[in-house]
Amino acid sequence: MKWCFFFILVWVGARSFSQEKDLSYFIQKARTNSPLLADYQNQIKISTLDSLINRAAYKTQVAGNLNANYAPVINGYGYDTALSNGQMVSALVGVNKRIMSKNQLNSQADSFKLIKDALIINKKIAVKDLDKSIIAQYIAAFGTETQMEYNNKIISLLKEEDVILKKLARSSIYKQTDYLIFNATVKQQELAALQLRQQYQNDLALLNYLTGEKDTAFVKLKNPDLTIKIDKEQGSIFFKQFEVDSLKIKNSDKLIDNTYKPALSLLGDAGYNSSFVYQGYKNFGFSVGLGLSIPIYDGNQRSLQHQKNSMALATIDSYNKNFKRQYDQQLLLLDQKFNQSAETSKMLQSQLSVAETLIEANKKLLLTGDAQITEYIIALSNIISIQDAMAQNTVNKLQIINEINYWKSNE
After folding, report:
1. What CA–CA distance (Å, rounded) separates 209 from 130?
2. Contact (CB, 8 A) for 373 and 179
3. How far apart, in whole angstroms, are the C-alpha atoms of residue 364 and residue 352?
4. Which of 11, 87, 251, 271 has the fewest other C-beta atoms within 10 Å?
């Protein structure tokens, strides 16, 4: 019964680890669970509603007004009836329509469009930031998994050799102390395997934490297979922030100028308005009128506001130029690191080929007792170091690709 229970546990563990998840799974989950992206999406919808509200404010406004007033005169004391009419009742429907030029309407519409454009850009950058962090952690976890799998292969190899060397030590072909040194190496690799497994569990836990998922399953990660993306679209999205900010200020200048243009309004009402002095039942009617407002002098505020916008535009331009310099330098540095990683990969591959040949030669000599166990251990340590370096170099290369895509790609 105990053995049956043991095999069930092993089977369940194998099943859980056999589950594979790829990079797109974690990216999609992170985007779905991100409150920041949901916030930006809601802000974009709100900006659309704000634009509609503003547009509605310039349509014909209709309001109903009901007023009743009584000013008595008692013993000759009271309001002058010539002014108060003694009593008054009005029930009117008022109409107000502000007349605006096409340029004024377009400037108002542009202001809301630019707000929406800025939010869309911020959301895209937030998506890029989120994807970058998820990809970076996925690469780290995948690198640990790769090292763990290779280490497990080494342990399997060492255990096979351990069985052979134990027999050879009993046959006095090798000293018992030599065998114990080899056995200690096996134990050391088992400890390294345990530490790598624990590290992989921690890397997966952090990946799920960043994704927003509560998951402790011990899964296998697929190769991220990252490549450098080349966008057909010209210009990075990071520069569009400065472009939109500049357009906002230029549009602000238009809005300032629009406030100094004459404002014309159409006015009208219809209904009942009476003081009941004479034939109150006939006091149904309507009225129409025009309202005109002409700005004359405001203490030179218009010029001062334009000066403020001019300085703000110069500041944005300065930040844009500085960002462009840093952006170009950043990409040059990343290209340099990518080329260095490729050079390192070729060198490590060459070293690995020599180390594998040396291991194979030592294994054959070990079976006949013609090889020193210490030399075999040194060769083994060398190939493990090379494999660790290759895994780390692969991780570095993938992280560099992730960084390049973050800056160059607009996805």
Report:
1. 12
2. yes
3. 19
4. 11
60 near 96, Cβ under 8 Å? yes
Indicate the DSSP class of residue 212: T
9 CB neighbour count, 10 Å cutoff: 9
Would you report the helix, strand and coil content of the chain in percent, each value rounded to 5? 70, 10, 15
Contact, 123 vs 37, CB < 8 A?
yes
Nearest by Cα to 226 from 137, 135, 348, 150: 135
**Residue indicated by tokens 């006091």:** 283
Strands 263-274 vs 87-99: parallel, antiparallel or unpaired: antiparallel
Q: What is the CA radius of gyration of the chain?
A: 40
What is the greatest pairwise CA distance in the chain? 140
Q: List pLDDT tens digits, range 151-178.
A: 888 888 888 877 877 777 777 777 788 7
Q: How far apart are CA 311 and CA 107, in angstroms?
A: 21
C-alpha count within 13 angstroms, C-beta hemisphere, residue 25: 14
CB atoms under 10 Å from CB of 66, counted, come to: 10
Helix intervals (H) in 267-372: 301-368
- Each residue's pLDDT tens digit, 191-241: 989 999 999 999 999 999 999 988 878 899 999 989 988 766 667 899 999
Give Cβ neighbours of residue 284 (< 8 Å, ≥ 6 apart): 271, 272
> Residue type at 403?
E
Alpha-carbon span 214 to 208, nearest angstrom:
7
Nearest to 290 by CA among 21, 98, 8, 128: 98
Cα(109)–Cα(205) distance, integer angstroms: 47
**Distance of alpha carbon 138 from alpha carbon 125, whole angstroms:** 20
Give the residue ranges of DSSP H helices in 85-101.
none
Phi then psi for residue 296, to 5 deg, are -115, -55
Q: Are 405 and 214 in contact (CB under 8 A)?
A: no
Q: What pTM value is reported for the model?
A: 0.84
Report whether 402 contacts 226 (CB < 8 A).
Answer: yes
d(C-alpha 212, C-alpha 210), whole Å = 5
Residue 277, phi then psi, degrees to nearest 5? -75, -40
CA distance 123 to 117: 10
| Cβ count near 76 (within 10 Å) | 5
Smallest CA-to-CA distance from 124 within 237, 255, 244 is with 237
